[in-house]
Amino acid sequence: MMRGRVAARPLADIADAACQVFADKGFRSAGISDVAAALGLSHGALYTYVESKQALLHLALLRALRPGEVDILTLPVAAVAPHRLTEMFDSWIADQAGLPILAQSAARLSDRPVEQELGEIIDELYEFIDRNRQVLDLVEWCASELPELAQTYFVQRRRAMLEQLGEFLQSRIHARRLQPVPDVGAAARFVVETIAWFAMHRHGDPDSAMLGDLSSRTTVRHLLMAAFVPAAQPGPATRGRRHR
């Protein structure tokens, strides 16, 4: 119960606004008044729903990670300890399908064509980021203010994924299936950041509003494949043939 009051706005609306504001500004820069303004509420009215900015972050993360649990909260929503937020994220990650194609490809050298392997990895990464962009964007902006969450997100999860991708690239370059690059670690980061920008960050860029989901996805795939897969060599029948 809300201490004898009736909620003027659904709690999900408050949570959605908090998600957007924190994703745009980060936790430290955003304030209660920013979320209130996004909702058309007064600064004081927002305290009807949450006890503090920390409680608002709890509400935002819960909305992104476990949306069905928002409606059963008691108002005003209280803050939780930082380690609880990390536990929420860990639990969410454990429920995800992960990146099985990347993990399998990094673990062993396959007989499959490398363009098929790389294409599937690109598609898998793009699909994961696109499907979970609200969660990833929110966590990325707020993790710098929450050391335990940053350890989970940046060190245990994202860094491990970059290492797997680097292992895949290195093994295929060593086998002469992919083109050599000056630095494999930088190349892995290039792949991930390219996909992340088009799958997630472009949605907040007004200059990219004309880019559609399908065109972005197919263009990223085309350009990354062209960057790493060696061009087909001309066969005996065409080598040396002059254009007329």
Write up what this structure looks like.
- The protein starts with 10 loop residues before the first helix and ends in a 16-residue tail after the last helix.
- The N terminus is likely disordered.
- With 244 residues, it is an all-alpha fold.
- Helix 9 crosses helix 10 and helix 10 runs antiparallel to helix 11.
- It is built from eleven helices and no strands.
- It folds into two domains: 70 residues, Arc Repressor Mutant, subunit A (Orthogonal Bundle), CATH 1.10.10.60; 142 residues, Tetracycline Repressor, domain 2.
Write down the overall geometry: elongated
Distance between the termini: 83 Å
What is the β-strand count? 0
Secondary structure category: mainly alpha
Considering DSSP H and I runs of 4 or more, what fraction of the residues is helical?
55-70%
What fold name goes in the CATH topology slot of the largest domain? Tetracycline Repressor, domain 2
Domain module tally: 2
The low-confidence parts are 1-6
What is the number of helices? Answer: 11
CATH 2nd-level architecture of the largest domain: Orthogonal Bundle
- N to C succession of SSEs: HHHHHHHHHHH
How much beta, percentage-wise?
A: under 5%
